Amino acid sequence: MPNLNSTISAHIGIAHIEFNEYLDHEAERAASVIDKYIEQMVDAAKGSQHPYQLLHRLYIISNELPKAVGKACYEALHNCGRMSASRVVKALDRAIPRDGGFDVHVKEAVGGAILQAILKPFRKPVARIRNIISDMLIEPIKRSVLERIVLGGAVVISRLMTTVKQAFSPQRVADILVRDISEGKDRRAQITSLRNELAMPRAAAKRTVRTEGIRVATESNMAAYEELGDITIGYAIHALLDEATRPEHRARNGTIYYKYPVGGQKGISEMPRPPIEPDGSIAWNCRCYLSPVFESLENFEMPTSSNVLPSILVYQDWWKNASDAKKRIAVGVRRFNYVTQRYGADASYSHFIDADGQLLSIDTLTAETAEQAAERIAANDALSNEARKRRASLLLTGGA
Fold first, then answer.
1. 10 Å Cβ neighbour count for 59?
2. CA–CA dist 382, 364 (Å, integer)
3. What is the three-class DSSP state of 363?
4. How far does CA 281 lie from the centroid of its chain?
5. What are the start-end ranges of the E strands in 167-238?
6. pLDDT (tens digit, 9 = 90+) per residue, 58-105?
7. Which of 148, 281, 276 is nearest to 212 (CA)?
8. Gap between the Cα atoms of 215 and 219, Å rounded
9. How far is CA 300 from the centre of its chain?
């Protein structure tokens, strides 16, 4: 099975795409706690006989709301940690080959005796990896470990609760409600007015869950990867390469950070742990992720440089059945919209990449002529087909 680390990083990349979709859901759910309290405020205004009654109720809400938002964020982060760790362990399970990962039809064509002889040199190390992953599937991350990771964001969530408290003015909200009622606005309009008034703390709650969610996911994933022990020699950093990607994150994409660096290799101390940068600063809304890099195994092609890029074949196979929402996360909204508008909803992953498997910028895509695009897409498809043939023929050569 060639390019094991590229295959692993691709499967984990797909898990990260799915996690980002889930993270958006959790961020919105945490922010929606404010919406529920807004409805309570509107109901309080309707049921109050006197403005002082309304103001009293709003002061009670001003004490309840920060705590409710903080609790919702903690719950979201626990969910993010469990979800991410579970997905990356399942990704490893899919990526690590069984009997060398060779296609079933090739196995049948060659025969059992030849197959056993070819698989013998690397059956033991692969079996070791598979046994570890089987144990990890039962409990991707221990509850105590996840709790410690989530509590690592206590200061950030405390800061969010202070922000919510300071942004909520009972007197200001009361004035808005009295004004809307006096103007004859209905319940929906009153809710809209308060949503506008509390837009800042709502956005802060979403931003906190998104950023802390990535941190919790990274640390939960790393806790899972560490269970692999000395099988891994380091980790590779990857970025979602869309229009929102920071230039410096794009530049480091695929870089390996070694546990025991030699000869100019980067060490773990230089490694980002998204969204935390090596210098300790926070890259807000960072969506980078780490994948483990495995040691050299006989008959497995390991990286010959300090760079690991996800397998294009894995992404192409995933693309066929992925939802549009996941595709947009994978390639970026603008890039996805442009290509699908130009080539139709059946556009393949080959429509988005160059000959090296890198995502093309939106400027490059729009500057292409129809002939240039057709030639590029055909070349990408030909390279993919050739790669699939090489993957299948590996069995016949025994990895030589």
1. 14
2. 21
3. helix
4. 20
5. 232-238
6. 999 999 999 999 999 999 999 999 999 999 999 999 988 765 444 444
7. 276
8. 6
9. 27
